[in-house]
Specification:
By secondary structure, this protein is mainly α. It contains 3 helices and 2 strands; from the N terminus they run ααββα. The protein has a two-stranded antiparallel ribbon with strand order 1-2. The radius of gyration is 13 Å and the shape is globular. The two termini are about 15 Å apart.
């Protein structure tokens, strides 16, 4: 069963990719995120809530936090990058 959380106002779409690049060092460039995410077909259960600067819907909540869920010992760089991109896109 798929459950969706709809975010009508994305407060930090680009910031999430910058976080992967600048803070975590998982990617060297923003453009590389596509290539890395393409190395896997799915996130293998890794899910990302892109709320690094809070959430805008259904009401403004700047205290909300981003969340990375579903990690296992088998989770690798491609699954994490893909989860972040999917989190922003969805």
């Amino acid at each position: 069963m798929t459950t969706w959380g709809v975010e009508a106002v994305m407060l930090s779409a680009g910031t999430n990719v910058e976080w992967l690049r600048d803070d975590l060092g998982i990617i060297a460039t923003a453009a590389e995120s596509h290539d890395v995410a393409s190395r896997c077909e799915t996130t293998d259960g890794v899910v990302y809530v892109p709320a690094l600067l809070g959430l805008g819907t259904p009401r403004w909540d700047y205290g909300a936090r981003g969340t990375l869920l579903g990690l296992t010992r088998g989770s690798e760089r491609p699954q994490i990058v893909r989860a972040v991109l999917e989190g922003v896109a969805q």
